[in-house]
Amino acid sequence: MTSENTIPLITKTAFNCPHCGAYTTQHWYQLVADAYGEKHRTPSIPTLEMIEEFKADREIPKETRDNLVSFCEKMLREKPFFENNNNSLYSRPIVQNCNISECYNCKEISVWVHDHIVYPNTKIDIPANNDLPEHIKQLFEEAREIVSCSPKGAAALLRLCVQYLCKELGESGKNIDKDIAALVAKGLNPLIQKALDVVRVIGNESVHPGEINLNDNKEIAVKLFGLVNIICEQMISQPKQINELYSDLPKAKLEGIEKRDAKSKPDE
Known about the structure:
By secondary structure, this protein is an alpha+beta fold. About 45% of the residues lie in helices and about 10% in strands. A five-stranded antiparallel beta sheet has the order 1-2-3-4-5, with no helix packed on it.
């Protein structure tokens, strides 16, 4: 299932997991800080050699040895995980603007700073319309790559996609307001006019294509992904599909249609 409603957002309790892709419940956790003591003032990163040493050390009780090996192996996977700890957390400060979501399906953890995911590094699950021109598709894909860490940058790229789409339809691609007016005069579908106006308005009308809008966030970027695909579907994909169906008609039928249309034209 792929739609705007399944995109991971910090305001949701269910979305497509960045790890397994399942649409499922996400459990949220806040983080607490625990300072390293004087004996270990920096984080400890285990090595494969340490694991082998623990396995071979028979002076360590088996249960403790197994727990040490298990902990080191989890650390070496380079993924966040929960460690059971019975110590009191009441005196530990909460880490603000940093949260963790845990997938109900795969139990994997995603790390969020402010409103975007910093781990894992994945593309947003909104694929580009296949009929997007290649240079526009490249911008779309770049926006997918960065939207989690830079929603403002992604939104700027997507508005640029819309401007280039207008240019593909014969407009200047410099001013979306003028492009919309020109396309309307050519008989633009009113629904697409609305979609273009949405891009213009939520983009802040004073912001030029490709510029960063400081009011953008991930929710706006997600809407822009959808709008680019909708505009492409109506402006490029559907006409292409209709022309393909028309060209597949028998030659005799096509000639009959051409004669009919020629008769209906006024004499020059």
